Amino acid sequence: MTPPPARKRRATKGGTPAQNLPRRGAVRRAQAITTYGVGSLIAVDNESFVVSSLDRAEESWRVDEAPRVYERRLARLLGVNYFRLPPASDDDSKDGMRVRRFPLMHSCPECTELQRHRDFNPPEGKSVCGTCEVDLVPSRFVVACEAGHLDEFPYWHWVHRSTERGATAVGRCGGKLRLRSSGRTSSLRSILVSCTCERAPEVSMEGSFRKNALKDLGLRCQGTRPWLGTSAPPVNCGRPLRTLQRGSSAVWQPVLKSALSIPPWSDGRSDPLSEHWDALREYDNREHVGIYLKGVFKGQCPVPLDEVMALLDAEREEDPDSEAHPTFDHRYRALRNKEYERLRSGNDESENSRDEQFICEPPLGDQSVLAPLGITGPMLVKKLREVRALKAFTRLADPDSTIESEEMPLSDSSLPWLPAVQVRGEGVFLRLDENRLGAWEKAVAVAARTERMRTAHQRMLDQRAGDGNQAVPSPATPRMVLLHTLAHVLIDEWSLEAGYPAASLRERLYAADDMAGVLIYTATSDSAGSLGGLVAQGEPETLDRTVRSAIRRAEWCSSDPLCMETGVSGVGGANLAACHACVMLPETSCEHNNILLDRALLVGTPEDPDLGFFADIAAG
After folding, report:
1. Which pLDDT does position 200 carry in this prediction?
2. Dihedral, 61, 62, 64, 68 alpha carbons, nearest 10
3. In 3-state terms, what secondary structure has residue 151?
4. b vs e for 434-464, b when ≥16 Cβ sit within 10 Å of the residue's Cβ?
5. Distance between CA 266 and CA 235 in Å, rounded?
6. Can you tell me the distance from the alpha carbon of 306 to that of 6, in angstroms, rounded to the nearest whole number?
7. Which band of pLDDT confidence, cut at 50, 70 and 90, is reported for residue 5?
8. Minimal CA–CA distance to 585: which of 595, 571, 572, 574?
């Protein structure tokens, strides 16, 4: 990760060769899509930068150090041909991810001046005050809108908001801004901003985070996109602005989409055709496909024609057929449906080559021991590969609730790829008995309890979608909340009994009218990734003990009775009996940001023990 070329040292007059600045910082590849992706703010030492977009020639990722990754099902969903791993290099002289300085407003703790970084006249390659020679401090505050734009905090307007001259005169008073801390408290009241023009009184930052604070000053979003560089013009936005702390998680949230590599795409044989699938689908018969391949590959197609036709048939089978023009969410559900079918049917190791990336087999033990639990069809996923791609990013919103218009693309132009990481590991897949689940779902108390969560979650989605926008429907159903909570307690149990860190495990839920399964798999490719320890937990007798122990552990929480009896909990009241002392997990392990959880649907409540799907185990 390096600053833009302007920050590199040039050769001196004496002939000293030019040198790059020392490496400014480093992030892991996975962090480049989950924490420090395009448009995010990253702090390095005492400086702050925004990660540049993908398509700027001098400021983007170094693609020759970003290997290609292929996953046709996910690429088709996201409208690209392939993916690229974030760049990585051990050579300090090479660039990886490029960044730009942001925010530009800095303050000097010695002279208290508050102005743009360049106005301090810092020595080349350093971020220090040219007069005081002390480190400059980037502005703690930025502003953003729900459309994804990001800008500097309007200090001039904030200081001069009470003057008679009005906003039109702001910036023309001839004075300089200053920022200091009174030191009395650690609150915003102690952060004081003033102007040397003396026409406005010194004001504190208290109230700047109020929802309408900037709207009351007549300020609206100007559509600024600093990650695109200075050459990118602002867009017409006009949405309300919100003040944020520079390091707040609300400044940048990734929109991640993932897919498992399943047959027939999981052996890598189709990778050479990654850029040709859309063209191949235009042909209806074998002859035309063969002619196209001969023309493209000069008669040397790396994939036999029979396999190409089989792959085309498999892709058409995954097409959603309920709508003429299916939505993104509908196509994503179709992708999950195909994964669910493959996890149920399995893929035997003895029938595949060593290049196969998906091996799923039934356990050897007697599965009937799981019948009293209402669990059926466990599968040992001995090898799996998951590709997680960064589709876009949002600000001031939950990624799972953001509609398409609110997502900010990673580039200003159309690119045939997106950044992604791949995880190779193992997992355990299990399903709930449909007959028992169907009877449980019909209970009035179960439906009423789930409806409370669904209503609260839908209200939150509607508020975030904004006026005039159609919010996505809440996924909360009795089986979804049940599977979600079950996955969390199993991950907690395996972290205690099998030695897995909770953050190294991840859930993948399959909850719909025709699906009731959960896959728990290793979410990291390091030493906790694929050593066989998780697969061993899927043997029926071991799984039986694990589930019983997890359910009994979920009966009590150290925050009870408050946790169990609370009316609402979690963000927006989208949880019921769930807290960090019982079922919540690290954010990397949960698909739904630790919402839509209810321990009572597992074990019941003291007043209604039959409410829980596993009430018999809890009672025993």
Report:
1. 80
2. -10
3. strand
4. eeebeebbeeeebeebbebbbebbbebbbeb
5. 42
6. 53
7. very low
8. 595
Q: Which amino acid does the sequence have at 30?
A: A
Q: How far apart are CA 375 and CA 370, in angstroms?
A: 6
- Yes or no: say if 376 and 235 are a contact pair by the CB < 8 Å rule: no
| DSSP states along 463-508 | HHH-TT-PPPPP---HHHHHHHHHHHHHHHHHHHHS---GGGEEEE
Model-level pTM? 0.85
Question: Given this model, what pLDDT does residue 404 score?
Answer: 39
What six digits make up the tokens of 255? 């929109």
Paired residues of 254 in beta bridges: 393
**What is the three-state SS of 293-351?**
HHHHHCCCCCCCHHHHHHHHHHHHHCCCCCCCCCCHHHHHHHHHHHHHHHHHHCECHHH
Provide the H-helix boundaries in 98-250.
155-159
Calculated CA dihedral for residues 30, 36, 37, 42, nearest 10 degrees: -160
* 51-61 per-position pLDDT tens digit: 988 875 444 67
The three-class DSSP label of residue 373 is helix
Beta bridge partners of 384: 425
Q: For the sheet with 41-44, list strands across it.
A: 41-44, 47-51, 99-101
How confident is the model over 411-444, as pLDDT tens digits? 888 889 999 999 888 999 999 999 999 999 999 9
Q: H/E/C letters for each residue in 420-449?
A: EEEEEEEEEEEEECHHHHHHHHCCHHHHHH
For residues 1 and 25, is the Cβ–Cβ distance under 8 A? yes
Partners of 510 in the β-ladder? 517
Report residue 405's pLDDT band, with 50, 70 and 90 as the boundaries: very low
Q: The tokens of 337 are what?
A: 């449906």
HSE of 274, CA atoms in CB hemisphere, 13 A: 21
| pLDDT bucket at 332, cuts 50 / 70 / 90 | confident
Q: 43: which DSSP letter?
A: E
Closest alpha carbon to 23 in 12, 7, 41, 6: 7
pLDDT at 503: 87
Amino acid at the residue 431: R
Token pair of 43 as six digits: 């702090």
Any residues with CB less than 8 A from the CB of 61 and at least 6 apart, and which? 54, 84, 86, 87, 96, 97, 98, 419
DSSP 555-617: T--TTTTHHHH-S-BSGGG-BSS--TTTT---GGG-TTTT-S--THHHH--SS-GGGSTTHHH
Give me the sign of the Cα torsion angle 476, 480, 486, 492: negative
Q: Is the pLDDT of residue 50 over 70?
A: yes
Torsion (CA) 20, 421, 142, 399 in degrees, nearest 10:
170
